[in-house]
Structures are given as C-alpha cells and as structure tokens.
From TrEMBL:
InterPro entries on file: Bact_solute-bind_prot3, Solute-binding_3/MltF_N
Residue span, Solute-binding protein family 3/N-terminal domain: 37-261
UniProt keyword Transport, yes or no: yes
Name of the protein described by the UniProt record: Amino acid ABC transporter substrate-binding protein
SMART domains linked to this entry: PBPb (SM00062)
Claim: Transport is one of the keywords in the record: yes
PANTHER family documented for this protein: AMINO ACID ABC TRANSPORTER PERMEASE (PTHR30085), AMINO-ACID ABC TRANSPORTER-BINDING PROTEIN YHDW-RELATED (PTHR30085:SF7)
Gene3D superfamilies the UniProt entry points to: Periplasmic binding protein-like II
Family of this protein: Belongs to the bacterial solute-binding protein 3 family.
Keyword annotations from UniProtKB, A to Z: Signal, Transport
Organism encoding this protein: Teichococcus aerophilus
Signal peptide: 1-25
Length: 342
C-alpha cells in the first residue's frame, strides 16, 4: 500500500512539473523565427490559386494564405518566400525541409496523411474531379468519352480518379501525362488531347486564360471529393496547431463579420465575448499559439477574411467566376464550419 501511495505521489508531482514547465515553440516555428521568413510551397502557376502577375508578384488564394500566415508570425506580409513546386515534387520538398508549409491545391487523402511522414491539417477549399472538352465536341457526359486521349498531370489524385472511372465503366482511354498544369492546357489547346481531367476549379481557372474560353466546356459531373488543405511535417505539434487555427480563424472572421475594413473597429467596439476573444481583446488565443494577441486582426487587415480572399481571386467578379458553392459557410449551405476559438 505504501509503495502504491509513493508511486501515486511521484506521478502527481511529475504531472505538476509538466504543467508548470514553460511552453516551448516547436522546431519549425523556432527555425522560421530565426530565419525571419516563412517558406511556403505553392503551385507552379494556376490562376485563382497561385500565379505571378505582370510584375512577377504571386497572386491567388494559396499565395494570400501564405502571406496571411507570415502576418500571423511577423505582422509583415512580405516575410514569406514562395517556392513553386510541381505535383510530383511538392511532398518531397516538404519532407526534406525545403519548405515550412505547403499551400498548393493538395487534396487530403488517407494515404498521403499516414504514409508520407506529413500531416494534412484542415480543408480550406472543396473541389471535385471533372473533365473539360471542346464545346463543339458534342460531349455532354464522361460516359461519351470512350477511347478518348486525356491530358493529366502526373503526381495528382486525378490520375487515379480518371483510371478508376474508365475501368469501372469498361471504357478505354489514352492518358498523356505532364509535369505542369500549363503544359496540359497547352496540349489540350493544340489538339494533342480530347479532354483534360483535373479538379473543376483548376479547369475553370485554366479556361479563363485560354485564347478563346468559350470554345471549351467543363462537364457538369464530378467524380471525386478533393478537399484542399495545407500540409506540414509530422512530429511538430506546435506548428501544426498554429497552421490549423490560422486557417480556422479566417473562416471564423468571416462568420463573425470581421473584415479588412472593420477589424480594428470591431476589436474596439464589439461586445460579443467570442468576437473579442478572436480579436485578441483577451490574449489567451495568441498566448496559446505563441503569437501576438492581435494576430487575427493583423491577418484580416492584411489579406482579408476567407470570403474576401476567395472573392478577390476566383469569385463571380473575376475572370474565373466561381460561385462559392461548397466553399460557403455552413450557415449559407456550404461546408465551411469553423471550430470554436475559445
């Protein structure tokens, strides 16, 4: 009995020491701060997500998510270095430490999450595999594409989705694989392929940059679930937590009506306890993540809430013209359901 009591006492003391120990940032966060710059993996170039403008400045949803994360860390959107990566090199670059985080139209799948030494964090964009064909091809559904030559990007889930569909329906097709999305679009436009198979948002983005967008039709069917989200390396919980709650905060800010224009005012005037907590009036959220208590205010002022970022780069008033659909908040029929930040 005495021995058991002693063991219980030792265990209790160990627990108290653990709780009393000062919180320490993880290795990734330490390295980023020592470097003074976030290194963010993005696409090699797809409108709406990440593409350089005429001045060579990266623009798009993924690019702004990288900038916003730099603001959360440094309160400076310029403290990010973009590393453009192909589909086949993106995960290797993250595993090797070449980048700190991957925001690159990357679908969360079980095998990626459990076999690559990486961690999928939380979806920020919901999509699905589709096909694009010439408008004059008289094709209205994928079942009419038997024997087609299809452009695909290597290293993507779209390879498997396309093969599974044609195998399931006892149809044949000829794949032509490319390293980059722009190469696949060029091959499609030149007539090397009858169709291009990839996620519908990327089809819409690519179509907007073709010589005659009206000459191309995106079939209405969707053949997969493609939730995009950031990836980080395994084994660094602090960095995982920061990236996860950063993405969540952009959606929470939208739900609470916090915008780039009113963030400071809402921090001063809001009486809602959850909004005040989100905006750092009380400091516990920032303290838990080891960032500035006003980190959400700083981020939203710099890049906007989720809706502002989406609308700026791919919303109805852009050349891409994508309605929010599943990327709406849950209160408006979408899938974005920000977790409570308390």
């Amino acid at each position: 009995m005495l021995k058991r009591a002693m063991l219980a006492t030792v265990a209790a003391m160990a627990t108290l020491l653990t709780l009393a120990a000062p919180a320490r940032a993880g290795a990734t966060l330490d390295a980023i701060r020592a470097r003074g710059q976030l290194v963010c993996g993005i696409h090699t170039g797809i409108a709406g997500f990440a593409i350089p403008d005429a001045r060579g400045v990266w623009q798009g949803l993924d690019a702004d998510l990288c900038r916003g994360l730099a603001v959360a860390l440094f309160n400076d959107a310029s403290k990010v270095r973009f590393q453009s990566l192909s589909s086949s090199t993106r995960f290797t670059a993250l595993s090797s430490g070449e980048i700190d985080v991957l925001f690159r139209t990357s679908t969360h799948t079980m095998m990626r999450d459990v076999t690559l030494g990486l961690r999928a964090i939380t979806p920020y964009f919901y999509d699905g595999h589709g096909f694009m064909v010439r408008a004059n091809a008289s094709i209205t559904k994928a079942s009419e594409m038997g024997g087609a030559t299809i452009c695909l990007v290597s290293g993507t889930t779209n390879e498997l989705v396309t093969a599974d569909y044609f195998r399931t329906h006892n149809m044949t097709f000829t794949p032509i694989l490319f390293e980059r999305t722009d190469q696949a679009f060029a091959a499609l436009q030149s007539g090397r392929c009858d169709a291009f198979g990839t996620d519908a948002s990327q089809l819409a983005a690519g179509r907007s940059s073709l010589q005659a967008p009206a000459d191309w039709t995106i079939l209405s069917e969707r053949f997969s679930k493609e939730p995009y989200g950031p990836y980080v390396r395994r084994g660094d919980d602090e960095w995982f937590d920061l990236v996860r709650w950063y993405v969540n905060a952009l959606m929470e800010a939208e739900e609470r009506g916090v915008t780039a224009a009113n963030a400071d005012q809402m921090r001063r005037e809001s009486t809602n306890p959850d909004t005040r907590r989100l905006l750092g009036v009380s400091p516990e959220l920032g303290q838990a993540l080891k960032v500035d208590p006003a980190w959400v205010v700083n981020v939203v002022k710099a890049v906007g809430n989720y809706a502002e970022i989406y609308d700026r780069h791919m919303g109805p008033n852009t050349p891409i013209g994508l309605a929010r659909g599943p990327n709406e908040l849950w209160t408006r029929g979408g899938l974005h359901y920000p977790l409570p930040m308390r």
